[in-house]
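ingest -> validate -> predict -> emit
validate: passed (alphabet ok, no gaps, 328 aa)
predict: started
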Amino acid sequence: MKTNENMSIEQAAELLKEGYPIAFVTETVYGLGADATNEQAVAKIFEAKGRPSDNPLIVHIASVDQVDALVKEIPVKAKSLMDVFWPGPLTIIFPKSDLVASNVTAGLDSVGIRMPSHPIAKALLEKVNLPIAAPSANTSGKPSPTTAYHVYDDLNGKILGIVDGGPVDKGIESTVIDCTLEPPVILRPGSITKEMIEEVIGPVLVSSTLEDNTPKAPGMKYRHYAPKANLILIDGDESKFIEVVSKDLEDNKKVGILVPTTYHQVQASVKLAYREDVEFFARNLYLFLREFDRYDLDVIYVKYINGDGLAKSIMNRLLKASNDQVIK
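emit:
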């Protein structure tokens, strides 16, 4: 199968209608979409990504009018969030209708829905006029794709095309909030933060554990966002980095580090640095992690980021990527 790296919106819409999965840009990361009402089309997403079938997908829509057919009811707090944050990087979980294919939701009676704000994603969804189930357009478990090249690198030969919109704006996946519960529960943090949500609907909870081991949203159960080398977080200053990295270098290990630009003294086999701006870091996080994959590294050390809001969302991704490995 040959992958068209720069497919038009019109071409992509026709293939989606025919039951093929197509990658497309959104404001968060690139998604791999298929008709959310067509079980066979959705199955092709799981096949292309190598994604476990019990990991549910998010449904993307072009208009609020599409929600009614996809859900059994719209809770009052969900409606308030839709009014404020849609279109945008917020996924809301509703009780689902029978229109949604069962493999979209891993057999659950709830479905996550969002309305992307990226103009290309909006245009594609309007053109196809179907609800589109779309996880990130990468090999399952790897860092999510924030450019069309990342998609091509992972899925060339496995999908027919990519609607290229250049680098994404946000760089991490949407916030997911479960409005089937009271109070609502944030299942995955993103650029719409807990603080922003609470300004609209009052107190919400944040899920830190998955008690019944059944994920209701992507990114909850399996290791995600991980580069090839073992990733470990260091919750300490530059001297701690020097101590840890120096020992590994003495043991002839190839070490990658991701640190603030102010860390001048620490050296490594591969050193990537970022300015201390959480929006910049979020937008480039997966770009950094994929850059490390170009080198045959033994281990990657990343500076632990403290803080609220978007900092917590970034740490959610890094803790998943590191399998919760933290050096204090």
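The chain has two domains: 9-206, 230-327.
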